[in-house]
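Researcher: Structure prediction, please.
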Amino acid sequence: MSDSLEFDFDVDAAWMQFQRTLGDYVSAMRDGDALVIESRYDTTDGVPDTAACVQFYAWDLDMVRCEIPANEHLHSSRSITEEQRQALSALGFRISLNSEPTAPHVDRNRSWSDDLAKKTVSVFRDIWGLPHPSFLSSRATGRYDVPSFDVSATEPDSTVVPLCVQPKGREHLQQLVDHALEPWFGFPPDHDPDGDIPLRFVGGTAYVSVKPTEPVVEINSTLVHAVSGRTRAAELLVDLNLQLPDVMLHLVQDCIVAQVRVSGSPFVADHLLWAVRMLSHVWEQVDEKFAEDFGGMLGEPAPPTVTAADFPDGLLELVELAAESDAPLDLKAVLARCSSDRDVVVSYLRISAEQEALWRAMAVAADLGDEHCDVDDADREAAKWSRTVAALREVLRSTPEQVTPVVDPSAIQLQLFETDEVAEVSDDISDDK
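Model: Predicted structure follows.
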């Protein structure tokens, strides 16, 4: 049997076990009992019951309703399309007419619980594309002693089955990576402004990223920076790479970077965790002597220190205004501090976006244990720059004509605003000059 067939078999077996356990639970429900099963990783924007969700309600002694929330109660990314409505209808769900909006549902005698469980698996797997039942959570309510429905207990050994899944795209692969790294952190991992997941080791930090153009997960960590003597460094790397076949060491400009690549087609959670452990072992062997051999300094270079003197006076005044209140800044006040000049507005916007990204990165580093920065201070600074960015964008959006600003290619995080969002200031600005 090929590896891909084995992976598919493992996933199918997990869903079959989930279906059997759910069927047994539904058949034992009593009047007034309710069970909600939903995706644990959907974005809900703080609104309850907006994730991919199937719910059950027992009534009339031996009846149970299996229901999918109507679109107005689902997150936009989970809204049921017309094609999916037809698929639900084929599964036996009652679909309302547009004039009578109700949630898709099936009413059955509880003796049909196995069939309802089968429909539920089809909804999560085929309609919403969830790769594995371990992506689900549950809530049970009703009688005072209502039993819980433990999704993890649907797996044969009551532990999480390693995910062996063929991703459907980059976003899906990122979701699988986040789920796989959750045991490492003890909670869902955070992302830095670049979208990478920072991992703190004994001596430094690594960054886990999903490649945008190929199904590959990369883990990169700068071991040494400010390397002097590239020729000698290259010679040392040849020997080190022979000693560390599972981790590749590269000379990137004046840095020694350790890299591990993990295939995401198919994705195996254990392979990613193994790669993290390999990089952790490398950091256990890296010390000051290691850095001295390369004529460099341990770890990655610190971000450049920027002082108030490095910013234009008008921009500093805008940032001070943003720090005074959470309310949106007055657009006339913003224009006044930009000398009513379109080029100045664009310049301030670029600088502010860079600073917001920098302070957010410092907040992440502080949260991971960096003693050189306080996380609360970094969050406050990031918030000030964020409000400044919002005000400058609003100035440019409030005008009818589109312009393309000239951008310094060395600037970081310029993707924080799209070119097509930048609009030319109105004729009123020119009149004010």
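Model: The longest strand covers residues 216-225.
Researcher: Thanks, that helps.
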